[in-house]
Amino acid sequence: MKDAEVTIALVSFKTPVLLERCIRSIYRYTKGVNFLVYVVDNGSFDGSREMVQTKFPQVKLIANNKNRFATVAFNQILKITKTPFVLVLSPDVEFLDNAILKMLNFCKKHSQVAAVSCRQIDAKGDVDKTCSRFSTPIIEILNSSIIARFLKNSKLLSKYKYGSWRRDSIRRVEVIGDTILLAKTSTLREVGFYDENIKLFFMENDLCLRMKNAGYSVWHMGSVTVKHLRGQSTLKFSPKQMYKIFEADMLYYYKKHFGIWWWIFLYCVYRLSRLYWSFEPLWALVRPKPSIK
Fold it and tell me: How much of the chain, in percent, has pLDDT values that exceed 70?
């Protein structure tokens, strides 16, 4: 067997069924590519690691004794890989055809392409509106804070999210999601891999921005499609836990890239959001229910 070209990096947290389906689809559809599969299990203790060892002995398993979250776990793989390309992959993805070969060929043809993602559909076949422009503090407030509930900002947010784009074409974009992200290992090493101060959110925003600052581009391939069942690992957390992780990651990201004054402003705005989400379940009990006609 020739030396592997691609390391497929999977981080698993309490999703053994999806992980098995994902790995099976990799081996079923990936042809013409020499690859290795790594799985980091983030302290699942639910049979995930035993499933990998029993059913896929060729997969390299790294077993953490606790949840080290996405950035640290992915870096455990990225920092040791020797292959020229790495595919960062979520275990709730299933391949439908030879997507990896198509993405790999695209990256090989374009020297300034640091990373590429592809079109994603859900279980019903609906297209996931992945990719975005780089966010700003104002965009963030309009997109995710409690203030967004009271402001009409559809035009601005539509531009930020490439709202009119059907995701069926090949296009240079600013941010691609890391649900499925094929990147050149040399570029990842150059920009410093994932920032481990971030746990779950904004990790792709931060990575893509550092790639851009280093002179590279990222692309979306609408000619390649995978199935994605969104957010299955995050369902293991309560909404309150998820909000706290989001808030911490968001504040760190904007402090890093926009400075301390924006951090202070966002901190104040999102204190109000935290207060709202603390009481929202109670308000839902007394809120008038819409009539059914």
Answer: 87
